[in-house]
Amino acid sequence: MSLVTLTSPMNIYLATPEAATHWAQELAEQLPRGGYISLTGPLGSGKSHFSRAVIQALGHTGHVPSPTYTLVEHYASVNAFHLDLYRLGDPEELEFLDMREALDSDSLCLIEWAEKGRPWLPDPVLEVRFDYADTGRQVSLISSDQTWLESLSLKG
Ligand SMILES: Nc1ncnc2c1ncn2[C@@H]1O[C@H](COP(=O)(O)OP(=O)(O)O)[C@@H](O)[C@H]1O
Ligand SMILES: [Mg+2]
Fold first, then answer.
1. pTM over 0.85
2. Is ligand 1 within 6 A of the CB of residue 76?
């Protein structure tokens, strides 16, 4: 059985962390820029793992720490932001983190626990939902842009 099972463009079973890395690498260049991508799912479901694989696939060679305490990490060389809003006290703090400019630009913006940024944050352009399933993860892509979902090129 393949480690990456594509049940449809929206639902993927990833059996191992390596399969998850590989899938994220394939998706990296195809992810929408502008606005933000909401990464949802319980603690340990793979949101930071996904972000790390994407940012490194785009060409960042250094470390990709979890932004749990810094809230935001900026990767200028690949024009990407990675946020974890779990510890955000007040959504208005996003104003002071200069996130309005980031959202309005063509940056890639990956946000864990984006619901903590509501109502300051608009709707995401894409949700990547992670769930525990068997010993791996079930991942769903949720987008109102059906054309984008159908255009995805993933070998699996
Ligand atoms: N498809 C997968 N199958 C099994 N384990 C995975 C898979 N994807 C990621 N993992 C593991 O699960 C953990 C995810 O941690 P992390 O990405 O920090 O979670 P989160 O950011 O969602 O809290 C890591 O230890 C990673 O190796
Ligand atoms: Mg995380």
1. yes
2. no
Atom of ligand 1 nearest to the CA of 137: 1
Task: Give residue 48 CA to ligand 2 midpoint distance, Å.
Answer: 4
Q: Which of 17, 18, 32, 42 is nearest to 110 (CA)?
A: 32
Per residue in 82-123, pLDDT (tens digit) is 999 999 999 999 999 889 999 999 999 999 999 999 999 999
CA distance 131 to 40: 9
**Ligand nearest 68 Cα, by number?**
2
What residues does each domain of the chain span? 4-150
The type of residue at 11 is N
What distance lies between CA 5 and its chain's CA centroid?
19
What is the homologous superfamily of the domain 4-150 according to CATH? P-loop containing nucleotide triphosphate hydrolases (3.40.50.300)
Average pLDDT, stretch 130-149? 93
